[in-house]
Amino acid sequence: MKEQNRKLSQKRDNDTSEKLTVLWWFSTAIPEIIKDCTSDRNRAKIIGAGVLFTWLYATIAWIYFWSISIKNPFIYISLGIFIGFGILTIDRMLISSMGKGQRNFVAIGFRVALAMFLGAFIAQPIILWMFEKDINAEVAILHGQKTQEKRTALEALFATETNELTNRRTQIADETTALYEDLQSAESDYLEEIDGTGGSGKYGIAGIAREKKRALDRAQKSYDQYQASSAGDLQRIDTRLGEITQRINEETDAFKERELDTGFLIRIEALQSLFDKDETGALAERYYLILIILVLFELIPIISKLYLPTGSYDEKVRLRDQIEIELAKSNTEKELSLKELYNQKAKEEDSELINNLFANISVTRKAKVEEIVKSWRASSDISFDELWNEIKEDLLSKKEG
Description:
Helix content: over 70%
Oligomer: single chain
Number of domains: 3
Largest sheet: none
């Protein structure tokens, strides 16, 4: 009965360990070591839960961040998961580097500062989501202002050409008015002359009246000619001014129809605008309070690692590292000694083989030399140098390169 209870207890422990393996992975604990550390298993579970929470929080924040500018759910969800996994990797790296005996305050300060920067940036999308209604209202105002700025910029772009065209049309109008006034004056003089109410005072068409009639005809002709010649210029001016106005209106309407309210920067600008308009400072106080809370979410794993007491796990990891280092050194020394022994034995065997080789061929080489010398003595055409070259080429050994 006791044996059965013991087996059931072991089975429960094994089942629990299997369920906690995921949290151990998040806490960077080594399963083979942590499962034997009773007190540290719960600490690893707490740290792993903190890292898991931070990962989920960062992933959701980044998904919302990308959804502000990207409409395709597949893209912004994928990007959010990808960057969330990067944050998870950084957190696991920071946790793993904070082992027992590694509490260097400079290193810890760097890790905390890095976590705070990450937390502050990740908090931005969440804060935008929390103040979404107020930000949307402010974005609409900013959108209108930016649309007006766009129209002003376009008008400034065409200002020089527009002013030249307007001045030319005004000049034509002034000259036309002046010619028309001359025509009116000539007509008045002529009418007064022929009815006797002005001019020479003689009634009817006399010599003076005929001259005034000619002046009236010339004024009429000048007026008609100028109107005919300037009609084309006026049409071109009006056409070009209409094109400029149409282009400004089209580009302004296109700019107005853009979904500027979905951009991250304009929403940040809207939030800043709300701060500027908030004379009481209540909005800024709540913003910074929420920001601090969200930054603490990113610091949860590091805070857990710093303030939870350490047990036997870190010591076992340190000892395991020492054992592996010593084993690596021992294996290296063993391998080196074996290689040296192999080289020594190979040298001895090769030396003996070479000695046997030269001992066996020594008699043959001497006999060969005697034959070559006899042949040289019998021949008068071969010099000693040629004899030496033949012996050196055929019989002497060559050095190893």
